[in-house]
Amino acid sequence: MEGDDVDMDAAETNESVPELDDMKKRLKEMEDEAAALLEMQAKVEKEMGSVQDPSASTAASQANREEVDSRSVFVGNVDYLCTPEEVQQHFQACGTINRVTIRSDKYGQPKGYAYVEFLESVAVQEALLLNESELHGRQLKVTVKRTNLPGMKQFRARRPSPYMGFPPRGAPMPPYLFSPYGYGKVLRYRMPMRYSPYG
């Protein structure tokens, strides 16, 4: 009886050894494939130039953004039905236009302002002369586009709400008043019951 058990165990180990070898082969193939993929990814990143120092790339992108913004103007009070082609025709006399962007909200409705990017920075001075000109019956506001600095959020002071319980900053605090009912006592008012459960 014990010999039969030993034979079965030996048979199971003989069958599991080829399965184990197959699993080891598949694991080795997957490791080789993963190494090949990593090598290909490193090669592509090297070709694309994406392997750079992050601070250097952000500085370069910031410099590029400042250069583009120096060739762009902000156009305010743009009619909501105005198309980028119409804005381009309006500023065509200033110089060669690279791009016209009319900003819209999350529903796709125009916000009422646009950015015009020129190929030359000299065209910006010409475009500033079109300040207070009319397009679709609206007087345009044309200014130089400013560059947003990362991490420098503009502070907007909020008006104090009359519905808020706290006084605005800088206002003098009223003197502390004691309760007219005695020091430390809390006056509680109990609502009278309309219907008594006891009749």
Secondary structure elements and their pairing?
Elements: H1 2-48, H2 54-70, E1 72-76, H3 84-91, E2 97-104, E3 110-118, H4 122-128, E4 134-135, E5 138-139, E6 141-144
Antiparallel strand pairs: 1-3, 1-6, 2-3, 4-5
pLDDT averaged residue by residue:
77
Compressed to H and E, one letter per element, the order equals HHEHEEHEEE
Percent of residues in helices comes to 25-40%
- Head-to-tail CA distance between termini: 87 Å
Oligomer: single chain
**What ranges have pLDDT less than 50 throughout 5 or more consecutive residues?**
none
If you compute it from the alpha carbons, what radius of gyration comes out, rounded to the nearest whole angstrom? 37 Å
Helix and strand content put the structural class at: alpha+beta
| Secondary structure: number of strands | 6
Shape: elongated
Beta-strand residue fraction: 15-25%
Main β-sheet, spatial strand arrangement: 2-3-1-6
The count of helical stretches stands at 4
Organism: Salix suchowensis
Protein name: RRM domain-containing protein
InterPro entries: Nucleotide-bd_a/b_plait_sf, RBD_domain_sf, RRM_dom
Keywords: RNA-binding
